[in-house]
Amino acid sequence: MVTLTTMQLKEIILIDTGEKVGTIIDLEIDVDQGIITHLIIGAKNKVIGLFGKQEEVIIPWSHIVTVGTDVILIKNMSYDTRI
């Protein structure tokens, strides 16, 4: 079993480019089916720079390739963002 706390320690990596996307700050769960539907990732806004706002990136669970010991690999970076 994997806990949210353990998942929050893992870096999210885009498998196609090796780009570090960010880390998990929350999950969206379908309570009727009891499944995780999306990961909510905290990522720095690249345009604003070091002291910029943190942007929320929403990644569908279907885009997860694998959950490793230190990283979570994702594919197809078509995602939703919320600031």
UniProtKB/TrEMBL annotation:
Recorded superkingdom: Bacteria
Pfam family, any one: PRC
SUPFAM superfamilies: PRC-barrel domain (SSF50346)
Protein name: PRC-barrel domain-containing protein
Stretches assigned to the PRC-barrel domain: 10-77
UniProt cross-references to Gene3D superfamilies, sorted A to Z: PRC-barrel domain
PANTHER family for this protein: SPORULATION PROTEIN YLMC-RELATED
